Amino acid sequence: QVQLQESGPGLVKPSQTLSATCTVSGGSITTNYYYWSWIRQPPGKGLEWIGDIAYSGTTYYSPSLKSRTSISRDTSKNQFTLQLNHVTPEDTAVYYCARHSSARVYDYWGQGTQVTVSS
């Protein structure tokens, strides 16, 4: 059973960098052919895909967030990390990490971490 657990800052000030980490257990983030995603849900809105890091380490980003986003991984800790730069209050959301296959079928999710951007 794969489990994902997000950890985040809770509160970030505008213009600062949001950094959140997903710790994976029960499976390796380097296992072929899985992709590890960051997804967010702003209050009252739907889910928004932020980006992926693949089993190979290749990254993919939402075009609307690409200029501010970086996803990296630490294979020794079986973790992957989201950095979102220059945040604004519109980045306030619950941030989820999840896994999907190459067919883009999501099978495991973390419980989510609330991040609020406010001064």
Note the run of SSEs as H and E.
Answer: EEEEEEEEEEE
CA-based shape: globular
Mean pLDDT: 97
Percent of residues in helices comes to: under 10%
For the record, give the distance between the C-alpha atoms at the N and C termini, rounded to a whole number: 40 Å
**Main beta sheet:** 7 strands, mixed
The counted number of beta strands is 11
**What portion of the residues fall into strands of 2 or more residues?**
over 45%
Number of helices: 0
Low-confidence stretches: none
Write the layout of secondary structure elements.
Blueprint: E1 3-7, E2 11-12, E3 18-25, E4 35-41, E5 48-54, E6 59-61, E7 69-74, E8 79-84, E9 93-100, E10 106-109, E11 113-117
From the structure above, extract its key features.
119 residues; mainly beta; 7-stranded mixed β-sheet; 4-stranded antiparallel β-sheet; globular
Task: Compose a concise summary of this entry.
0% of the residues lie in helices and 51% in strands. By secondary structure, the protein is an all-beta fold. β4 and β5 form a beta hairpin.
Question: Would you write up a description of this structure?
Answer:
The protein has 119 residues and is mostly beta strands. Helices cover 0% and strands 51% of the residues. It contains no helices and eleven strands. The strands form two sheets. Strands 2, 4, 5, 6, 9, 10 and 11 form a seven-stranded mixed beta sheet that branches. Strands 1-3-8-7 form a four-stranded antiparallel beta sheet, with no helix packed on it. Strand 7 and strand 8 form a beta hairpin. The mean pLDDT is 97.
